[in-house]
Specification:
alpha/beta, 361 residues, 13 helices, catalytic activity, seven-stranded parallel beta sheet, 14 strands, iron, S-adenosyl-L-methionine, 4Fe-4S
Length: 361
């Protein structure tokens, strides 16, 4: 095991559905990863993986560190011979000095003394666990085949050995309610992972969830519901110093053309979440400071300007209409935190949960 870093340049190798002992109700893995059709082999050839690594390394000339990652399946569920062959392939690049570590995603119930003994021989930095939920009823209805206790046990074993950990969380699975979402979120954050990924559940063609949806037995979250829950998760995680690695599924050509039947999918989902957060802060300032006919100026960190404006400037238009403002100006200000918004001599920060008067210079 070697120490990982959240800033690594990641070379992704997709092993769609390989090693998975269960067919989860939400899963049609080839649509998620964009790797071929349902009849294609689950594992790419090793020569194909080498070609993919070389292709990505060509883009990583000045990036450091670089890590090879196995995504899209249950890595520790692979047959031992295949598992060690994959690790040997990646290890060769580490020994050459062109790559600095290995990471992968797997199910919690595949973290065992046997698989951990194998990992100990390799420079693995980071393990992602597909927890998805910490509510056993939700896991059962989603045919996950593992429990919340399995996730807790796996996390304890991985952290005891010094691995960085990332937990994957799905929103809107069968049986999830607002209360169960919050319980699940708090249990995930209590495990203190280094990062989390937040995936709103989409109804994928060819999945068990698609059959339930067609029969009217499953209703996905609306886009707004998914954004609001993701915003809550992002804020709770960030306040605890836990990185949110991603919000929303990675876009692929298959998903755009035929993969998604229903659900809160959006190609810029993470942007929608951050825009909702800045909209809340702008509303706080407007409610306390603005009067009809005002022309306020918002100041925001340059990297957060588009988040404040919202999708197609929707937040600015909504504020102007609701508070009857004559005009709104947005000024970049790199002295502000990326999570803060200032106007009229006041600063609000949703992460710090503060509303304070600006200090005079």
């Amino acid at each position: 095991m070697v120490t990982g870093t959240p800033r690594a340049f990641v070379v992704p190798l997709f092993i769609p559905h390989a090693g998975c002992p269960h067919h989860c109700i939400f899963c049609n893995q080839h649509a998620v990863t964009g790797q071929g059709n349902a009849n294609a082999p689950a594992m790419p050839t090793f020569s194909a993986m080498e070609e993919e690594i070389e292709r990505w390394l060509g883009w990583a000339a000045s990036r450091h560190p670089v890590e090879i990652s196995f995504y899209g399946g249950t890595f520790l569920g692979l047959p031992v011979e295949t598992l060690t062959a994959c690790l040997d392939l990646a290890h060769g690049y580490v020994k050459s000095g062109r790559v600095q570590g290995i990471r992968f995603s797997t199910r919690p119930d595949t973290v065992t003394p046997e698989t951990l003994a194998i990992l100990a021989r390799y420079p693995v930095t980071t393990v992602e666990l597909g927890a998805q939920s910490m509510e056993d009823l939700v896991l059962k209805l989603s045919t996950r085949g593992h429990t919340a206790a399995d996730t807790e046990k796996a996390m304890a074993q991985l952290k005891a050995r010094g691995y960085r950990t990332i937990l994957q969380m799905m929103l809107g699975l069968p049986g999830e309610t607002p209360a169960r979402f919050r319980t699940s979120l708090h249990r995930i954050l209590a495990l203190a992972p280094d990062g989390i990924r937040i995936y709103p559940t989409a109804v994928l063609a060819g999945s068990g969830l698609a059959a339930l949806w067609r029969r009217g037995q499953y209703e996905p979250l609306s886009l707004d519901e998914a954004v609001q829950r993701s915003k809550e998760a992002w804020l709770e995680a960030t306040r605890r110093g836990i990185a949110v690695i991603r919000m929303g599924l990675q876009e692929s050509e298959e998903m755009r053309l035929e993969g998604i039947l229903a659900g809160p999918h959006h190609p810029a989902f993470g942007h929608l979440v951050h825009s909702a957060r800045f909209r809340d802060m702008a509303e706080t300032l407007a409610r306390r400071l603005f009067s009809p006919g005002d022309s306020p100026t918002f100041r925001v960190h340059p990297r957060s300007v588009s988040r404040l404006r919202g999708d197609k400037n929707s937040t600015m238009e909504s504020l102007a209409a609701r508070w009857k403002l004559a005009a709104i100006q947005v000024v970049p200000d790199n002295t502000l935190a990326e999570t803060a918004l200032a106007a009229g001599g006041w600063i609000v920060d949703s992460v710090r949960q503060s509303f304070a008067k600006e200090m005079e210079s």
